[in-house]
């Protein structure tokens, strides 16, 4: 295969067969020296031993003839860390893991690392730094990349280190270390950091540029330079002076040991960045909470002033973050492979998102015939080998997932014998793997502090690849068993081994000496990485984002079934966060991320440097489009939040495939069901007798999935319940609410639209909601008042209030909603009135702020199917800097309009209000007839 260090050829790793496997083979050794309850680590025995964990066990030594982490030539390798970091669990599968995992024997430094906005690569002389701003579309148009290209190297004069080691790390920062005996250098780099913070001894600070720099500012210890069109600021201690000689720039440090470099969004930002040049970032930490149908995450940096008293900083937020924060942002932005990054002035920010829905299975509906379902169930449960010959961790996992999907389906239709036989199959195979000494087992590697399953597959042993993919199926299957047999899931029984796998792949504890914190999940990037060593020119990668979210959904189910709130909340945080990242970076949901020259509506793989329309094993469009969908479960409902992206995705599939899907048609029918259930059901009806299910699927599950969604309607993730295991489906004007209650007492679930659903103990329930709901009666009239909480209503009585229109943060958002207030009325019926147009009267108040411009957009979804046929964007309103309400109306006329109006039949009317310009928030009056929207319908 081509050398991945020179180019990450998307198709360079051929599979032995066309099977749904993904990322570069990365080895993950099975982490599991746990105490009796399966939580804490036990001391490693001096000789090979079986370590008991409840009723199960794992080994502390690999099976004979197997391998753990190695270089690409097969030589065993241990973590490349300094003495200060020795013994700490190394976070493999990260954006910087090549610093610690030396995959290539001739490269003891690192491969390119993509922190965004900066890129890095360690060399003997220090740290290469780049800021790629122009994408290249390569591989016959199948891949776009902002590849690392050195603008400068940060180091010390004469530094020639034999290697680079990881010295320290936190949630999204790392400190590489160089030493050649006479000189020592440490730098701190990270996601979102425009600065590189350096500490060195034994020589002068040295910056070597890729070409002679243009100096735009020379202020002694502060130097502004431009290299390859990119602007950098160099900061040495007060009293020092930068000296430029060709492409070499040096500064004496005197008695100090610190200096820093920042990439500037523009030359006029120098003064702002100078303020924070010596406030060095020393750590990063994420916190999260999941409650009341939302997930809140906090991202905080710790800093230390090297001189002066400033301890603030600047950090750049990814798109999936700034879409969901209300914290003020500066006008500064950066280019990245994930779209525009926006700069925050401060050490922390928070995001708030609606929780992604999860169910153990779709609920029972009239769309499924019991007799036909029973025929399909029997085909699976009575097969000669229900596990289809699977022996390794991945294919065993796929088989476990396939069987587990059917347990709650069999149960809801009263097929208890089938249910119990399936549960027996799951228990038997899980217990085989959860017991050391047999043909299959998990083994703990004390050096890499990882738990690896043997037989391994796709580099899960030698490269520590894909643990979160493989183990997601085991946790999901165990959660299904726990739903019906809590005693089996106890720590003292088999639950301890389930927790061991969770600890390996998604450990929520930073202080655990046996496993790293959240091994595969990059909290700042918002998604997981699959390669354990990150040893590619394009950085790390992830192909099957849906197998990553499968683990997150499994954590929600396992935590709910076993009463473990910590793991349930962890699952909600991971799933909700990654669902937005997947929507933006794999599916380009808002069409704001993929560069124009890429020409695709979806990516099969995301790399540190960009994304690719490909998989590791095939260029077949069906697998490219399906690999980020499978496995389809009750944890896949979040995908329905972007129905237009699903339609674009499937339309491209047909174009690229030269016709409809043939091989993975079941996966793609189920995907289409999330946006257009009727169309997907028609395809199932026409093709159900003439296809072979994908290896993780069954006809029983696909029939139940397509039939249920055809009956209930597509999932509506915009409405959330205060129970993690709840979901909403909308068909026409009817919403169906569903929830599963794992508790031993009945539970009333309250949804964000006010609907309520009473769910009996240990049961799934469905209903159309009571005590509220989505406009139980269709709105009458055509004049809508605004209500705080996002509602448009024709009710004439309300309580006066106001909502805050977020600041434009100094940028120009004329015509493009930016953190908008959104108000909706659903189930609206009306006949288009000839000659009438949309009208509105909105009371706004900018207070004493100068130069604000609220803007409105009105959209019409004529049938309530999630597609807005008509969108009207109005010119913004220039407010005055005098406290008091002003009236913003449609009199300025539309700035733009797309689509056509027609009659409303169960439709949706949406009003969005945001700040087009300005650098301060404003207020919008609600609850009275002072703020109304009038639609042109009778």
What is shown here, in short?
This protein is an alpha+beta fold.
Rounded mean pLDDT is: 92
Strand content: 25-35%
Q: Strand arrangement, largest sheet?
A: 10-11-12-13-20-17-16-15
Oligomer: single chain
What's the total number of strands? Answer: 51
Protein structure class: alpha+beta
Fraction of residues in helix: 10-25%
Mass-distribution shape: globular
Major β-sheet annotation? 8 strands, antiparallel
pLDDT < 50 stretches: 1-46, 771-777
Protein model, in words:
The protein has 15 helices and 51 strands. It has 938 residues and is an alpha+beta fold. Helix 4 (393-404) runs antiparallel to helix 6 and helix 6 crosses helix 7. The protein starts with 29 loop residues before the first strand and ends with a strand.
Write out key terms for the chains shown:
7-stranded antiparallel β-sheet, 8-stranded antiparallel β-sheet, 938 residues, 15 helices, globular
